[in-house]
Structures are given as C-alpha cells and as structure tokens.
Amino acid sequence: MQIVHPSEAELETMLHLAFRHLPPQEAAVRIGAVLQQHEAGTLQFDSLFLAKNGDTLVAALYAQSRPDGSVLLWVPSMPAGYSAEAFYDALEKYCCNGNKYAAVALADRNQPFDERTLLEYGRFEFLSDLVYLAVELSPQDAAYQPQQLQFISLPEIQQDTQSGTEDDTAYGTSQRLKTLVKATYADSLDFPQLMSVAPVENVLLGYKSGALFRPELWFIVRYEGRDIGVLLLTDASPEQFELTYMGLIAEVRGQGLAREIVRYAKSAAARWNKILLLTSVDEKNVPACRIYLSENLRAWDRKKVFARFY
C-alpha cells in the first residue's frame, strides 16, 4: 500500500473515502466544505492523503490544518486486511514539517477503527468524548434580559480604547479580551490537556476562521464592575448560532453566572432570528453539562477525541 497526495481528478473520490464513516448528511457537509476550499484556491493538497494498492483506492485521510497551529483529522476507516500505520507515518511528517503543536483526531461513535494502532503506533492518547448539544429557540428567549451580568461586545471594547495600544490588528481582538480568555483557561475542565498548550492568540484566530465571524457576537462579561468571563458566538448558518466558547475566571465559578451566560447566548441567537443554538462540550466537564441540560440543550451526537502532542 502506498500513501500519496490525490490528483485533482481523484479529489472528490478521496473525500468520500475520508468521510465514509460519518452519517450521510454530515459527510456531505464536510465534503462540500473542502470542495469549496478547492474552488477558492485555498485547499492545501499536502494535507490530503490517499492510500493506494496499485490502481485501487483503499482509504483516505484529511488533515485539516487549523489557524491555532494544530491539525484536525478524522480517524481513517481501513478495509479488512489493511492497517492505518502508513497514514500515521505520513501525518507525523506533515505535522513536524509544519511545526504543528498537536494533532486532534475525532472518531465517530459508530465508526469501526483500529484503536490499538492509533494509540500505540500513531502515539495518540484518548482525551474524552466530545458531546454536541442543541436547543430550539423560542420568542421568549429573545425577551430575556440579564440580571447580574453586563455583556460588552468586541466593537464596544475597541471603541473604548483611547490609546490604541489594546487593539491587535493581526487578530482584530483586544489585549483585554486575550488576557481574559487566558484567565478563564485556569483549572478548566474542557479538554484541559489541549487548553494548557494552545496559544490564546492562535485559538482566537481559529475561532474567527471557523464560520461567519461577527465581532458584535464576541463579548466580555462583567460582574460587579469587573471583567469575569467571555462569551464567543459564531453565525454558523442562516438558521443557527454556535456557542463557540464561554468561560469564567476561577473565583466566580459556582455562583450560577454561567447559566446566565447561556441564557444570554440563547437570547442573542433568538434576536437574530435563529432557530437553533448549538455547542459542544467535554463529557468530563460535568458542571458545564449540567448547566446546558438545565437550559434545555440536548445531546444529539458525540465523538471520541484523541490527541498527539508534538
């Protein structure tokens, strides 16, 4: 078996192989997104790996390079009689040559794969299950007004900057926001192995590039006259908002403030005439899971998350 980069003629077939383990609707979305990158001229073929046995296309791996310096991939599904070892060799070279700090691998809950090879040969480690949640919004959500918290959007933060030193033009986010995001990482229960090594500036850049970035949907959260948290929302589609990240500094956790942040996220989505609010969370983050469930967000999917750190 030989690992090669696909030709343009092989691209669509390669993507169907790479995402064949996913539910049909999700696979179609993933394939469509990559094909759009190709049409825009931004797809990097060195992140696409195709396994061939002679002229037969066996399996495929797509390593999505992310702005935060990591790589996201879906564990390859191999036919009987084939091993994924050669894929992990190719991935290792790609990540090391590109100075990546981590590769994050997702496995669909119904996907058969060789976990032993992933862990022992690929040198990945299992982190947790990633749970995807959603809530259907109502007109009552739009009417919600926060009781204790104040939400200051990114444009408002930058307008308040007098000297101009806070504004980082490379990322379009203020130093105030970046410092606060980093503070919310302390003792985080949401994939702490990744949070502890990811550069904050690069993580924010990755959040911005995920879908339609709207700076008016990024908020600093204030409580009793000081900055205590952040809320980052993404305009995911005409029908959906995504709660991309929320966090509180350690000293104010456990006071019910996170629930108010989720309610505000629901109200913001409803005011933008969205139908759904989506988010995802580490299954081991029990406090966050309880808050989401109390606000009627329900799990609709989950994936196993593995990581390889460089």
What would you note in describing this structure?
This protein is 33% helix and 32% strand. With 310 residues, it is α+β, with helices and mostly antiparallel strands. The protein folds into 2 domains: 2-123, Gcn5-related N-acetyltransferase (GNAT) (Aminopeptidase); 134-302, Aminopeptidase (3-Layer(aba) Sandwich). A 12-stranded mixed β-sheet has the order 1-2-3-4-5-14-6-13-12-11-10-7, with helices on both faces. It has a two-stranded antiparallel sheet with strand order 8-9. Helix 1 packs antiparallel against helix 2. The protein is elongated and about 65 Å long.
Instruction: Kindly report the oligomeric state of this protein.
Output: single chain
Summed over residues and divided by their number, the pLDDT gives a mean of 89
Query: What is the helix tally?
Result: 11
CATH architecture name of the largest domain: 3-Layer(aba) Sandwich
Look at the helices and sheets and give the structural class: alpha+beta
Number of domains: 2
- The tally of strands reads 14
CATH superfamily of the largest domain: Gcn5-related N-acetyltransferase (GNAT)
> Would you identify the regions where 5 or more consecutive residues have pLDDT less than 50?
162-171
Q: Percent of residues in beta strands?
A: 25-35%
Shape, please? elongated
